[in-house]
Amino acid sequence: MSSLYTSVTESVAAALSPPAAPAAGKHRFLLYGKNGWIGGMLIELARANGDEVVLGDARLENREAVLAEVERVRPTRVLNAAGVTGRPNVDWCEFNKQTVIRTNVIGCLNLADICWQKKLHCTLYATGCIFEYDAAHPLGGGVETAFTEEDRANFDGSYYSMTKGFVEEMLRAYLDHLTVLRVRMPISDDLSPRNFITKISKYEKVVDIPNSMTVLHDLLPCSLELSRRELAGIYNFCNPGAISHNQCLEQYKKYVDPDFTWSNFTVEEQNKILEAKRSDNELDCSKLVNALPDIHTAMAECMQRTKKNLDAQGWKPAPRGQ
């Protein structure tokens, strides 16, 4: 009995004792969104650098649970890659507004506020799909008229984007301990269903509008460096320049699937088949590291990495019409 009591006591004490400090020069990241696409990439990147990653279990809308987890884990940095975008696309959000609010609004604000109170740096993987071209930021205007980090959201054509714009405005109160990354049309080096290239390659028709985009291979490592250095603030988190849907698919055809074909339609025609409108814009990302490759170079390099990865898997393009 005494041995059993001692064993139980030691186990309880170990569970309640504060975790050991991370190794010198390394960080303990508490990550929310562990089951998500970007979250999974962040886990691999941080651990590859020798940092510790603790996977958050608390639901962000449950403030008490999140607070308890933060106090138990004692992270040096927090990463928020959790969020609801909708499956198969943002049209889902039009019919699930309460779920969107719980995660993208209440949960996001809960975590930002807790980290602010704890003076703990938090990085939020947000969205740049809160803008649309307008008179002051015209299509084709280039970097001179692109949206900057000081610009406020002007697009509310979808419920998803509308809530994201509202939240970003409220998050400005926490920017001394918060980094907000405006991710746009994220692209990976594979055929993940979340990859923007995968999505448009499966559409029957696509619009052809230049947009800022985020090549994750280039930018996710930068996000961790921003976190490590506690560079707070809002960042347009995309590669320099803008690239159209057709230009993306041309690179896909050139490097991945030589037999691929597609056709276009207008924004007006697209809007007729969607529940919600889509955001099109160019963001000025000069605030980010200037050494990043521009989007055209990044897209070509991404398609080449994709081809290499798919070849290693033995993947072959399906014949047209199947």
UniProtKB/TrEMBL annotation:
Ranges where the RmlD-like substrate binding domain occurs: 28-203
Top-level taxon of the source organism: Eukaryota
InterPro entries associated with the record: dTDP_dehydrorham_reduct (IPR005913), NAD(P)-bd_dom_sf (IPR036291), RmlD-like-bd (IPR029903)
GO molecular function, one term: methionine adenosyltransferase regulator activity
GO CC aspect terms: methionine adenosyltransferase complex
Database matches in Pfam families: RmlD_sub_bind (PF04321)
Gene3D superfamilies: NAD(P)-binding Rossmann-like Domain
Single GO BP term: S-adenosylmethionine biosynthetic process
The name this protein goes by in its record: RmlD-like substrate binding domain-containing protein
